[in-house]
Amino acid sequence: MSKGRRNALRVAFALAILLLPAEMVIQKLVDQPYPGIYQPSFAGTPVVNDILTAKVPLVHVTFADASVVDVPFEAVLPDSKLLDLSVFNSAFQSQIRANSPETVAWLKNDLEQKFPGRTPTTMVVEFQTLKIDITDPSSRTATTTKTVTVDLQEGAR
Amino acid sequence: MKYFDNWVVRGPFRSADLGVYRIIFGLAALALLPNAQFLAGYPSSFFAPPPGPLQRLSGIPPLGVLISLEIALALALAAVVFGVFTRTASVVAGVLMVLTFGLTYSFGKIDHTIFLPLAALLVVWAGWGRSYSIDSLKTRADPDAPVSQWPLRLFALLIGVGFATAAIPKFLGGWLKPGTQATEGHYWYETLIDDRNQAFAPLFGHITSPIFWEPLDWVTVALEGGIILSVISWRSFRIMIALASVFHVGVLVMMNILFTTNVVAYAAFVPWGLVLVWLKRRGVHAPRLSARAWTVVAAVGIPVLAIVAWALAVGLPIEARDGIKIVIIVIAGIVSACYLVFEILNLVRWIRGRSARRDSLRRREVAHAR
């Protein structure tokens, strides 16, 4: 093996080893980058003393006739290969992003197709902290921690 | 440093192993071809790429671009299968996989499929196009010539790094504390929140004893953290990735999470040449065609394979796609379990041989003393 090739391999392997602390620091300080050589961390545990804690969105759509319909958050999204909860949380977590003109126009059209003949005026997303007793999963308590309102009339103009 | 230099280039891989792996990799990657065109159904405001080069994109690429990416990737992978312009096709396939997967990860969640493109981008430099390829017919390369081992060593190390990024947060997050039962916690989250409660998953809900759940936490951290250490020897690394494949079957059964791309990547370390020898002994071999005939087969086969794979990727319902993934994971689990049994038998033989040698030595010493 030539000297140049040997040194190149030494550098490549050194960089591969240094990648581990570098990735951990980047993930801690910024977020997980892509592309990056990561595997899913599943850090911590969502169950403490038999209580599962999770953040879930509840969606209420108000129509022009003042009626309100609860809609599963998955139903708001198009059929996709992605995990709906992640997509929904990402898109509707912030009031500003949820009310971007593109989101509002798309959402209005989407809800009008799902509820033909009715005019949606607002969509309210309640982000709830759900606590489920895993010894009896039907036993649940929910606390609303955040509310995001999407004004479908204002934004769609 | 001399030991390190030797370690980097030392390995058991032969041209035949890599040639067969290239074909398996290409076919598996075609079966897992990402469907990116559904992204066009989202508004551009949903597009939120993770930190990295994808943030330079101003929005979701138009539908035409997404379809072109899918087809280009399918064509590159089909060229990898047939071994046509193998180096270029492999690098293009690797880059397109990173890009296409990346686009689908720009909506709030990264799936960890990086080992798959990494296989194409690294193992190609070991010479996976040197056997069972159209390229080898043109260059008449010696199939028995030694191949570069360092790309596989580097790939193994990077797999270890990837898993260490999962082990460290688990360790810091208290997975090893006896009171946590983190696996149980995540099982319940996946079942109740992410609705991954199909097939065998509900059975685990009846298990409440920490005696079942706590060791799973320890085994998970030990496995994920141990892979990087196992890279020191090919045997220990193969044992660890075989354990990882069996572990992925466990995760599939318990939580319905599919680590398909990982097991396709691990297949790079299987001595596929031995399988060929086994098949040849039983009279199974590839059709004997002239170089010209193989070139014609490839010229027809590449576009046909690519279009069929693409049509299935976009046309098959998600349940059918998941079925393909499950089959791949289960096959990998069975192969890995057989390998682990083989290694256990080797260990038993070694222990027996050692004690037999010791007995024989003792008998000889007694006889000598008399």
From TrEMBL, chain B:
Entry superkingdom: Bacteria
InterPro entries listed in its UniProt record: HTTM_dom (IPR053934)
HTTM domain mapped to chain residues: 13-268
Entry keyword annotation includes Translocase: no
Organism of origin: Subtercola boreus
The protein's name: HTTM domain-containing protein
Keywords for this protein: Membrane, Transmembrane, Transmembrane helix
Transmembrane segments: 20-42, 63-85, 91-107, 114-132, 152-172, 263-279, 291-314, 326-348
Keyword Transmembrane included in the entry's annotation: yes
